[in-house]
Design a protein that fits this description.
The chain is of the alpha/beta class and about 140 residues long. The protein is built from 4 helices and 5 strands. About 40% of the residues lie in helices and about 25% in strands.
């Protein structure tokens, strides 16, 4: 019982120290609009910036939750969109078509990744100390 109380106190203390702010972030690469998700912890000085690349099913609540988790740890997290704001794949065939198009056109894929890296400079709380992570 005592350990449970200590664990609950530790969680409440950590939650009280984190003032998370999260919202969608629209940006443009080339002539196409994208919609990412930015999460920050406004209670502390950012440790760095983490760009999150979604897996083949596009931006979902999974990437959003990962951004929030990183923000709780003190990072500015930017879950980027590599498909485009108008794309919302709903099936395996749609996932395959969108991801396959990028795998077939590596130059375009790199342009979208680099565009998101450049966009990070426009995000409040983002730092030059940055890494990119991804899924799939």
């Amino acid at each position: 019982m005592f350990r449970t109380g200590l664990a609950a106190l530790a969680v409440m203390t950590t939650a009280a120290q984190a003032e998370l702010s999260a919202d969608y972030h629209r940006y443009t690469v080339g002539d196409r609009e994208y919609e990412g998700y930015v999460a920050t912890n406004t209670a502390i000085e950012p440790k760095g910036t983490v760009l999150i690349v979604h897996d083949w099913d596009g931006m979902t609540d999974y990437e959003e939750r990962r951004a929030e988790m990183l923000a709780a740890l003190g990072y500015t997290a930017f879950a980027i969109d590599v498909y485009g704001a108008d794309e919302n794949p709903q099936s395996i065939d749609e996932n395959r078509a969108l991801s396959g198009a990028l795998y077939a056109d590596r130059e375009e894929f790199r342009a979208r990744l680099m565009g998101a890296i450049e966009e990070a400079a426009n995000i409040t709380g983002a730092t030059q100390n940055a890494v990119m992570m991804g899924y799939c």
